[in-house]
Amino acid sequence: MNRDHLLATVADTQAFGRALAQLLQAGDLVVLAGPLGAGKTALTQGIGAGLGVPGPVTSPTFVLARVHRGGRVPLVHVDAYRLGSMADVDDLDLDATAGEAVTVVEWGHGLVEQLADEHLVVELDRRDDDVRTARLVPHGPGWEQRLR
Questions:
Q1: For the chain, what is the radius of gyration of the CA atoms?
Q2: Phi, psi (deg, nearest 5) at residue 95
């Protein structure tokens, strides 16, 4: 899979998430990095659709984490924006589902990487013309191999 992507619309971002979901398996950790409005939730919606989870995937901003079951693999969607420390992450008890689900964490850069031996960072950004960009940054040999 190409590591750099231009995503002109929300639909493009969701389609990219559906394509990315084809690489994902139970135990995967995906960390979404980028400013407000960069497309983190839209990307996660696409991942959910690609995994076949039923129902809407919405931002878990106020509940911090949502588990979506019923797809090929469960999806754990986390919003770490309000989390300030590792202790806050530990309180979510994400380790309990990490091995059986795909865990996607918005705003988790620097907070959640220890949840898995390897992980994928998706660096999202929004240009001045409102086109989004996505860069896949693998951490670990397994992700390096999958992205080839």
A1: 14
A2: -60, -30
Q: Give the Cα separation of 117 and 119 in Å (integer).
A: 7
**d(C-alpha 97, C-alpha 41), whole Å:** 20
Domains of the chain by range and CATH? 4-147 (3.40.50.300)
pLDDT tens-digit map of 23-73:
999 999 999 999 998 999 999 999 999 999 998 888 766 556 778 889 999
Dist CA 3 CA 141 (whole Å): 15
Cβ atoms of residues 65 and 78 within 8 Å: yes
pLDDT in tens, 93-132: 555 566 788 999 988 777 777 778 899 999 999 999 999 9
Report how far Cα 64 is from the mean position of its chain's Cα atoms: 14
φ/ψ of residue 131, rounded to 5: -75, 135
